[in-house]
Each structure stands twice: as C-alpha cells, then as structure tokens.
Write a structure and sequence with these properties.
Layout lengths: L3 E2 L17 E2 L10 E9 L2 E9 L7 E9 L2 H9 L10 E2 L4 E8 L11 E4 L2 E2 L5 H4 L10 E2 L7 E4 L1 H6 L1 E3 L6 H4 L2 H14 L6 E5 L3 H12 L3 E6 L2 H9 L4 E4 L6 H9 L3 E6 L4 H10 E9 L13 H6 L3 E3 L6 H12 L5 H4 E6 L3 H9 L6 E5 L2
Parallel strand pairs: 1-10, 13-14, 13-16, 14-15, 16-17, 17-18, 19-20
Antiparallel strand pairs: 2-4, 3-4, 3-6, 5-7, 5-11, 5-20, 7-8, 8-12, 9-10
Helix pairs in contact: 5-6, 5-11, 8-9
Length: 377
C-alpha cells in the first residue's frame, strides 16, 4: 500500500482526501467560514499564496494557528520538481515544519485545549503494519503525511493528534520547536549509525541537515570534520563543534579537498547532500571496517556505481536512514528544549508568507540561507 498524502487531488466530495484537505476552495462554500492565507503548490516552480476558507473540524481533529514555519531542503526539491512521490501531489497545501497554538478543538478530543502551545510532526505511522510492529515506524506502509505549514492555520487529523502532536514547555520558542521534524530525521540517522565516542566522523554537506549531524555527533563525543560549500556555513559547523571545516574548491573535487586536509580515512562518513557523486566519494573516504550512512536522498531513478572489491575487502557497512518515528520526534524536541539544538544557529533569514513565492525562486537560484522563518502574521 502506498503512503497516503493529505493533499492528494481526489474528488472534493471526499472531505478527507480533497486537494485542499485543510481548506475548502472559496467557490464551494455556501456559508461564511473564516478566511486564511495559505501557500498552494500547483506544479513545477509554481506556488501561490491564496485566500482560502477554513473547513470545519472532523472528529479527532484540532486546528493550529501557525506561529512559526521553516523552509526545508525537501520543500525546495518539491518546488523544483512540482510534486513529491510520497508526500504531495499538486494542487496541494505546502510546507511541513511548524509550531503554533491550538486555536480550535473538536468536541471529541479530550486531551488538548485551545491555547496549548504545540509542535506537530509531518507524518504519523499506522501502528498496525509489519514495519510498525517491528519498531520501524519510519517505514510504515501507510504513513499519513501532513502538509500545509506555509499558512496561517492548519488542521491536524486524528492520527497525528493521537501519535505525533506534542506540548511545548512555556519557555520554548516556536521557531526553535519548528526544527523538531528535520532534527528527528537526524536523530534517526545518528541512532542507526551507532556513533561511538572518540570516532572520527566526516559529514559531507554543510546544509541544515549536515549542520545538525555536526552538532549531534559532537554531542556524542565524536571528532567531527565537515566538508561543504559556503564560508558562513562552514564557520557555523566549527561553532557547533566540528574540529575541521573543509571547503570544496572551485573545481568541485570533494575527494581532493578532504584528502589534503584530513590525512587519513574516517571511522564514519555521513553523506548529507544527496548526489550520486558524493555517495561514491563517501565509500572512498571511510576506513576499512568503517560505516557509511547515505542520508541524502538522490533524485528518483538515480543509479550509483560502486567498486565491489573496495566494499567487500574493506568490510564496509553501508546504510541509508530515512524519515523519523514518534520516538525520534520526542527525542528531537528534548534536544531543543534542553538547548543542545538552538534555532538561532540554523535560522538566518525571515520572510512574510505573502513573499513565499519569491523566496522559493531565490532559493532555487542559490539563496544561501540555512533556514528561513516564514511569518504568517
């Protein structure tokens, strides 16, 4: 069974599966309902901020007034491609990293109140499939995805309310809490890689994910090196605990840049870029008996070639971490609320919701911001 998206463009008469699951198109409304603004993805590099009507809550649901939403590399990929095979099919509401305040609760929901400060994950597992029963909820056959963070409000469906909605401490800032989802994916990667104190870890990529890996690997007691682009991002890597930040030269030769700086192979290499050439480099930069985590997802249908002799005779362990689970969401929120991860390190831009289309065009053209805070108000 394929994962279901809350934004699949099905018959509008099916209230739970309409293209605008969280909002009803204005022309279909016969009675006056509150009007909010939301970003709608229509296709490749076509996102528009429009006025839409909020729909009534169904049993088990709550509505969140969004106080902070963050840009994400995955959202940029979706913008460029015009869709996401697992999460979103246009036309659909857009964005998935958010935190806010509960503004409405369906009478059937007893555990939440209007005014509760919360963060919600972008998916929830079914709990009954083979993978959920074997502690691999990130691979759930029926993951229910949540999109619509780039808006003034969002409806959280019953399953997410039950499994992946969390209350914030009073002092937790919304922009910090909005980092929970991507950080949970990194927590998943760290746990699956089984980092050991004192290991030499190379992280390929100095984007938001690479920087989060830097911080968590440092927190685990590892000696972290980062290779990537952008002087500011590499300086951030050093501030997060990296002992070395290696710039990729103008020739783009990552292998040469690392070998000239590192001196010897690494115990662990984490690929956080998502390009076939960096996947191939990763297996050549790890020591014999080492571990490689191909964390960065390559475009669909990408094929990568490896030297089988190198992998076999070097006894390499290769793995690829994907997504998160309710447990890693909780752990990520704990890392944020204890100050190990701080939003100010990763958020270096702000943008009003109305300017979101221009922001994504700039991101596609090479905007160097790590993450941008989207202000709906």
């Amino acid at each position: 069974m394929c994962p279901r998206s809350l934004a699949e463009p099905l018959d509008l008469s099916q209230i739970q599966s309409a293209a605008f699951y969280f909002f009803w198109p204005l022309q279909t409304i016969a009675v006056a309902l509150p009007i909010v603004r939301a970003a709608i993805l229509y296709g490749k590099e076509d996102v528009r901020v429009e006025a839409v009507s909020e729909r009534p809550l169904a049993p088990g649901e709550v509505r969140i007034r969004i106080e902070a939403a963050l840009t994400c590399g995955t959202d940029l990929k979706v913008f460029r491609r015009g869709y996401h095979a697992k999460m979103i099919v246009p036309p659909a509401v857009f964005g998935h990293e958010l935190a806010g305040v509960i503004s409405e609760v369906h009478p059937s929901v007893a555990s939440w109140r209007v005014g509760d400060r919360v963060v919600v994950a972008n998916s929830a597992p079914c709990g009954v499939c083979f993978y959920c029963q074997h502690n691999q909820e990130n691979l759930c056959d029926d993951l229910l995805f949540l999109n619509g963070a780039y808006a003034e409000s969002i409806v959280v469906p019953r399953r997410l309310v039950q499994k992946n909605l969390y209350q914030l401490e009073p002092e937790t800032r919304f922009e910090d809490a909005a980092l929970t989802e991507p950080l949970a994916c990194v927590v998943q990667g760290v746990e699956e890689t089984k980092l050991v104190r004192g290991e030499r870890v190379l992280i390929i990529g100095a984007g938001p994910i690479g920087l989060m890996f830097t911080r968590l690997a440092f927190h685990a007691g590892c000696l972290v090196s980062v290779v990537g682009r952008g002087e500011a991002r590499l300086q951030t890597a050093l501030s997060l605990g990296a002992v070395q930040a290696v710039p990729v030269g103008g020739d783009g030769n990552l292998m040469n840049a690392v070998k000239l700086s590192a001196g010897s192979a690494f115990d662990v290499v984490i690929e956080a870029v998502g390009k076939p050439e960096t996947w191939q480099s990763a297996v050549r930069l790890v020591r014999k008996g080492g571990r490689v985590n191909f964390f960065g997802g390559c475009p669909s249908d990408t094929v990568v070639s490896f030297d089988t002799g190198l992998i076999h005779y070097s006894n390499l362990t290769l793995l690829a971490s994907f997504h998160h689970t309710p447990k890693t969401i909780q752990k990520a929120l704990g890392l944020i609320e204890t100050g190990i991860i701080q939003g100010s390190t990763f958020i270096n831009g702000t943008c009003r919701l109305t300017n979101l289309p221009d922001l994504f065009k700039a991101m596609a053209a090479g905007n160097s911001a790590v993450k941008t805070l989207i202000q709906a108000g």
